[in-house]
């Protein structure tokens, strides 16, 4: 199956060349497109000559980024907070809801550590209980999480797409099961938003968190937190950023002494929300993704990975992602047939100029639109020789 065509070749020009390497690690760090680089350079000029900095950068720029994110996921801008990554949104949920000591939070075994770092300290403080869900077969499934729900379950904290194997959660079905039991669903979309077409209403989650430096192609230290409107009303911040106060945008009267936070999700905006060094390039990347369409990214990456799976040297490698294409996302994981040889295989790929991630004993192959058949050939050749 060939993926290279005129469209894919043209997309490659949207990025700078990769110095004669095959970069297949968007799940680790997404490279900034040319448009984002230009936006970052422009924002540096604002600090080089501050008198040229437009006043609307303080609130206009964050507002535009919020609107672009809302457009991408089918949400309302007022339900989105701008954060430094997925962990910020998790912390907002952890500290914004009222907990009882016997409330149960479900986390899957092998989940990304941000979930454990958020919830386990609350268990140690006696505020709730954490239960780790074990997969019944090789890969964790949505059915495993649904089967683990009990009358005590208050919240399920899980990834929309697993970082370690690319398994895709059936979020609508999980949300329906959670709500039927009176529980909430927090979905970590760090590995899916920007690459998986989604409508936030159809996902059914109560909260969605994501980082912006992977599939959203933004700088490190960007992200967002989405909360369903009625859930936002249930949560109260312990404290917050002054820019989230209702009167913050009135620069003629900043020091009223009144502390009244906005009622929408922006009350959880990260401090220094208008960090133009981060938001200006993120805005450009979001505009780029919306122009080309997230489905274009999805289709291209899936076709690329299908080619890799079809050509995988089975005498040396095994698939480390679900074999059923419906159960995995836009990237794929493989491992050496002898698991202890996977680190050596990773080193071999790096030396051959093929950059992937080594995660949980597997090689995570995460392409994007700039990757073509030549990159697939280079990967397979390095895995085979």
Explained architecture:
By secondary structure, the chain is of the alpha/beta class. It contains 13 helices and 13 strands. It has helices at 6-12, 34-48, 60-73, 86-96, 113-124, 142-148, 171-180, 200-203, 229-234, 276-292, 294-311, 342-351, 373-384, and strands at residues 22-23, 80-83, 104-108, 129-133, 153-159, 184-188, 207-211, 223-227, 317-319, 332-336, 354-355, 357-359, 362-365. A seven-stranded mixed beta sheet has the order 2-8-7-6-5-3-4, with helices on both faces. Residues 1-8 have low confidence and may be disordered.
Please count the helical segments: 13
Q: What's the CATH H-level superfamily name of the largest domain?
A: Type I PLP-dependent aspartate aminotransferase-like (Major domain)
* Residues in β-strands, percent: 5-15%
Write out the strand line-up for the largest beta sheet, numbering strands in chain order.
2-8-7-6-5-3-4
Q: State the low-pLDDT regions, or none.
A: 1-8
For the report, how would you describe the main beta sheet? 7 strands, mixed
- Mean residue pLDDT: 92
Tell the overall outline.
globular
Number of structural domains: 2
State the helicity in percent bands: 25-40%
Please give the radius of gyration in angstroms: 22 Å
So what's the CATH class of the largest domain? Answer: Alpha Beta
Kindly name the structural category: alpha/beta
Distance between the termini: 21 Å
CATH topology label of the largest domain: Aspartate Aminotransferase, domain 2
Q: What is the number of beta strands?
A: 13
Order of helices and strands: HEHHEHEHEHEHEHEEHHHEEHEEEH
CATH architecture of the largest domain: 3-Layer(aba) Sandwich
């Amino acid at each position: 199956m060939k993926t290279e065509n005129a469209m894919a070749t043209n997309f490659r020009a949207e990025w700078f060349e990769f110095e004669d390497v095959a970069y297949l690690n968007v799940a680790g760090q997404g490279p900034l497109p040319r448009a984002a680089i230009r936006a970052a350079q422009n924002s540096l000029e604002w600090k080089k000559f501050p008198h040229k900095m437009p006043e609307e950068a303080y609130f206009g720029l964050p507002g535009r980024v919020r609107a672009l994110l809302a457009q991408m996921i089918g949400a309302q801008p007022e339900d989105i907070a701008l954060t430094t990554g997925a962990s910020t949104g998790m912390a907002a949920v952890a500290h914004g809801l009222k907990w009882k000591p016997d409330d149960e939070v479900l986390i899957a075994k092998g989940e990304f550590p941000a979930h454990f770092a958020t919830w386990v300290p609350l268990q140690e403080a006696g505020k709730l209980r954490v239960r780790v869900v074990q997969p019944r077969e090789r890969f964790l499934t949505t059915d495993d999480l649904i089967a683990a729900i009990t009358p005590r379950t208050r919240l399920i904290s899980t990834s929309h797409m697993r970082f370690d194997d690319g398994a895709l959660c059936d979020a609508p079905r999980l949300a329906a099961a959670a709500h039927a039991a009176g529980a909430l669903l927090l979905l970590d979309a760090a590995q899916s938003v920007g690459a998986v077409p989604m409508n936030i209403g159809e996902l059914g989650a109560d909260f969605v968190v994501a980082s912006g430096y992977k599939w959203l192609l933004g700088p490190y230290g960007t992200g967002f937190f989405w909360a369903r409107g009625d859930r936002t009303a249930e949560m109260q911040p312990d404290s917050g950023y002054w820019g989230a106060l209702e009167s913050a945008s009135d620069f003629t009267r900043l020091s009223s002494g009144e502390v009244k936070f906005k009622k929408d999700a922006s009350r959880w905006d990260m401090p220094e929300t208008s960090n133009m060094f981060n938001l200006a390039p993120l805005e450009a990347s979001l505009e780029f993704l919306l122009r080309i369409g997230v489905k274009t990214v999805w289709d291209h990456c899936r076709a690329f990975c299908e080619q890799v799976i079809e050509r995988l040297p089975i005498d040396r490698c095994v698939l480390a992602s679900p074999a059923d294409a419906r159960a995995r996302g836009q990237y794929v994981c493989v491992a050496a047939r002898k698991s202890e040889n996977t680190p050596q295989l990773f080193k071999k790929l790096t030396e051959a100029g093929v950059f992937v991630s080594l995660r949980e004993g597997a090689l995570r192959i995460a392409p994007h639109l700039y990757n073509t058949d030549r990159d697939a050939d280079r990967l397979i050749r390095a895995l085979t020789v």
